[in-house]
Amino acid sequence: MSFVTVRAKVVSDNTGSVSEIPILMTPIGPLVPLIDYCLQKRRSLSWMTKLLRSVHLFLEYLEVNAEQQEEWRLFRNFANALRLGTIDKETGLDPSGLCWQPFQGPDVDYYVVLLSEFLDWVAMTRPPAEDDSATRSRMHPERFNPKYKGGSYDQRIDERAYQYRRSKAFLGHTWSNNPEKDSVGRLTRGAKPPKISNGQEPEFPEDRFEELLFKGFKVAGRYDWRGMAISLLLHGAGFRESEPFHLYMGDVQPHWDDPTVAFVAIHHPSYGVAPLNWRKQDGRRGTRAQYLADEYGLTPRHQIGASHRAGWKNPALDAKYYMQAWWFPDVAYGQLFLQIWERYLEQVQRVPRHHPFAFINLESKTAGNIYTLKHFIRAHASAVGRIGLTYSKSSGTTPHGHRHAYGRRLMRASVNPLIIQRVMHHCSPDSQAVYTQPERGEAIKALNEAAIKIGESYIVSIDQPCLRRES
Q1: Range name among 45-49, 121-125, 346-350 with the lowest pLDDT average
Q2: What is the model's pLDDT at position 154?
Q3: Four-residue CA torsion sign, 200, 205, 209, 215
Q4: How far apart are CA 35 and CA 272, in angstroms?
Q5: 62 or 147: which carries more pLDDT confidence?
Q6: How far is CA 172 from CA 165, 229, 365, in A?
Q7: C-beta of residue 44 within 8 angstroms of C-beta of residue 113
Q8: Fewest Cβ atoms nearer than 10 Å: which of 137, 173, 204, 309?
Q9: pTM for the full model?
Q10: pLDDT confidence of 183, banded at 50, 70, 90?
Q11: How many CA atoms lie within 13 A of 419 on its CB side?
Q12: Model confidence over 397-434: pLDDT tens digits?
């Protein structure tokens, strides 16, 4: 059972085009259909990593259960093995050698969906080769988790789910009004996990943010203007933690209406327009992907798997092709950011660099290199510790806690949900729910205030005979 996931540069043709993606190595080489599938789908690195994990697990399961001939039984039993584990609870042994502990419910559901879609694609695009082994040739990918009509209640559930997905999809109006009646469900489905109402990540403490900036990011008597600027983009403008790492030096300018406020535009890493002073060979403006390739031999940071990678979740953009910083409250954070930015520019103006990215390393050995998200997370954790806070997701003190603080600040100010969607750059109005739903303390406070409003008419006496204890 020798299956290993590695990072690789994939050359698909005789051009110089290279794709850097994770691939799954088997005892006889890379799993080529999986490479083709990833290149065709062009999804995020996180998606590819989870897909490879699901295929990896499935191949391991097939290695020790190849005697079963019916594909749908294999797939069903595989899903059960993920949920229940493979170790006998009484003996503590696993004859198969897999020794899997039970996986979490949401992970099992996601693996089942990813694997089903991949097997569908394999069946559609890659017919079985004639020289396959007897075991593999009798297995048909489309039969592992086939679609089926199901009973009347199954059909109702599937149709409801289809209509919900259709209503939320960006191009949902182009979908058919009804799903195909002859194939509306999957034979093996993921179990629906319980819904937790208060599962959102806590926000960064509002009353400690200024202290974080001016005390937490002060090391040996010197301010870390770089860390302060990034933190302010997260806390005062609500950007996701990876988005500031796509910023170029020229993407920050004084606002034309108020020069004391910073106008920050984070462009799409690939489609965003190249800097004003750069032109393609034909004299026209180009994209940032073209600019990076021609000027620096670099790939946009969301398309690489190296340490310089910075994610991009395809946010709703404000213009072609960028999203701007919507400072809140008012312009105070925008003014503070511009002051910090000017100090940062003074610090880096003479540092040589061979890339256009705004945030750079300042350490002597690596000065001028691209500053990474990993290094910022470490610096942020250290800054949190310097002001006496515990660094943890549950405390809201991770970088992502600032985005929650921004969303909840908007909610407390009773900003229209459509405006919150706009300034947080969400494609769906439902995406902001995790940032704006009330916390437990707020719910208790609201209930107590409501109880006072309705008065004593609803108070039930507990001094009832049936409740009295006899002495």
Answers
A1: 121-125
A2: 53
A3: negative
A4: 27
A5: 62
A6: 8, 39, 52
A7: no
A8: 173
A9: 0.73
A10: low
A11: 11
A12: 999 999 999 999 998 898 988 899 999 999 887 776 77
What stretches of 298-439 show up as alpha helix (H) in DSSP?
A: 332-348, 373-386, 400-412, 417-423, 433-436
For residue 411, what are its two tokens?
């909610």
Residue 285, CB-side half-sphere exposure with 13 Å CA sphere? 9
E strand residue ranges, 204-340? 218-219, 222-223, 252-254, 262-267, 322-324
Sign of CA dihedral 114, 115, 117, 121: positive
Q: Are residues 432 and 420 in contact, defined by beta-carbon separation less than 8 angstroms?
A: yes
Q: Which residues touch 310 (CB under 8 Å, ≥6 apart)?
A: 242, 243, 245, 246, 269, 301, 302, 372, 373
H/E element, 369: none
The helix/strand/coil state of 319 is strand
Q: What is the DSSP string of 60-110?
A: HHHHH-TT---HHHHHHHHHHHHHH-SS-TTT---TTS--PPPPPHHHHHH
CA distances (Å), 339 to each of 265, 335, 455, in order?
17, 7, 52
- Match 């297995």 to its residue by tokens: 139
Q: Which residues pair with 147 in a beta bridge?
A: 186
Percent of all residues in the chain with a pLDDT value above 90, rounded to a whole number: 44
